[in-house]
Each structure stands twice: as structure tokens, then as C-alpha cells.
TrEMBL record:
InterPro entries: Acyl_CoA_acyltransferase (IPR016181), Bact_Acetyltransf (IPR050832), GNAT_dom (IPR000182). It comes from Streptomyces beihaiensis. This is GNAT family N-acetyltransferase. Gene3D superfamilies: 3.40.630.30. It comes from the Bacteria.
Amino acid sequence: MPSHTLWTVTPEPYDSAVAAALWRAYYTEVSDRWYLRHEGRSTDPEELEREVAAGAHEELAPPRGQLLVGRYAGEPAGTAGVRMADTATAELTRVFVREDLRGTGGAALLVSAAEAAARDLGATVIRLDTRSDLVEARALYARLGYRETAPHNDEMYAEHWFAKDLAAPTAASTATG
């Protein structure tokens, strides 16, 4: 059985224990990558807990957003969030798959589900920002039809900006690869 058939993606309350555990894993990885790259150290655990607690997760709740959780063989394994920036533009955020499950098709399924949620919220365009060191994410977005754009925000850690037209689903947005 192909590994991507073991994935399910469903909406999840942003304040659930499952969401908190996955966000802690997400923040640990992206924060550690940044600190190791720039300061040669891992993230201070107290700082990590402050970041998890400070996240503006309410923006990922209906009617202006949606948090999605991917489960692999029933176990929480990844997230993707979408929030409306304006009446026609959604922002993709918090895309994460546990390291041990990368390459099993979960990230593409999560992004595809987030695009569908954005369409349901009325978006015709979805955009995101990411960092240079998150090379896997940048490759995923390019493979799924996102195009690199000029900056659309001034986020401190943003180094690359992408966008995708959501007018109609494309073969790339439904890829499971």
C-alpha cells in the first residue's frame, strides 16, 4: 500500500492538545535550525515555550482561518494552517510534517487541504513566506505550483515569498508525492 494512503487530513481546533504538541515540534525544529545556523546553538527551552504560548493561533479558527492536522496511520504527524489576509487572499502557515514521516506524501496532502480550505473561505490567491534554510519547504512549494514573488510582508524571519492562484485546482495542488 502506498504510504500516502495512510494519511488523513482533518480540521482541528487551534487550542487542542494535538495542535499544541505538533506546534511544539514545529517550533523546536525551525527555531533550532535558525539558532544553529546563526548562533551555533539549540533553542533555549524557556524561549521555545514562550514562542509556543505567544503564537496567535486564534487566526486559524473559522470563520477567518482553519487549522488542519495530518495523521499518519491515525497518529498526529503534521499541520497546515490557513488564515485570510483580506477578502480574496489567504496565507498558508505552519506547514509541518514530523521528520520521521517526510517523503510519505503528507506535506503535499496538507498543502492541498489548506488550499481547499482557503477556497472555501473565499480566497482566490494563497501566499506564504519562508526562510532560506527551509530548503525542503521551498522545494515543496515550487513542486506544488507556487511561484516566488516580491515580499508581501516584513516578517523578521521571512526571506522568500510565494503565491499561487486558487481559481481552480491544478494537478500540482492535488499531488500526493
